[in-house]
Specification:
Strand 1 and strand 2 form a beta hairpin. Helix content is 26%, strand content 18%. The protein has one domain. The two termini are 23 Å apart.
Length: 102
């Protein structure tokens, strides 16, 4: 699905840019919170939380002030997955859909 590929590529690009544009004086460590602290869904002891970085202030928290991904039409989305099941998750066939609600 082309839209899914764009979202995944956007996330990969955002991660790559975060290290590229950081300077020595900026803090580059970003730590995600628990999945349940973001808008989330729970299914079978797996919690998936997501947070869009939809403003310049939010993107600066994760990527530094020199990277303005929104200017290039890239919407970074933090996705946190917590698995509290005894088995691991197989994400090889994961499908991600970005749904815009107005």
């Amino acid at each position: 699905m082309p839209g899914t590929r764009f979202v995944i590529l956007s996330i990969a690009l955002a991660i790559a840019c975060s290290g590229t544009f950081a300077t020595a004086g900026e803090k580059t460590s970003f730590h995600a919170n628990a999945a349940g602290t973001y808008p989330h869904q729970v299914s079978d002891s797996v919690t998936i939380g997501a947070k869009p970085f939809s403003s310049e202030d939010l993107t600066a928290q994760a990527f530094g002030k020199k990277t303005d991904l929104l200017k290039y039409g890239v919407l970074p989305v933090l996705v946190v997955i917590e698995n509290k099941r005894p088995k691991t998750l197989d994400l090889r066939n994961l499908e991600v859909n970005l749904v815009c609600e107005d």
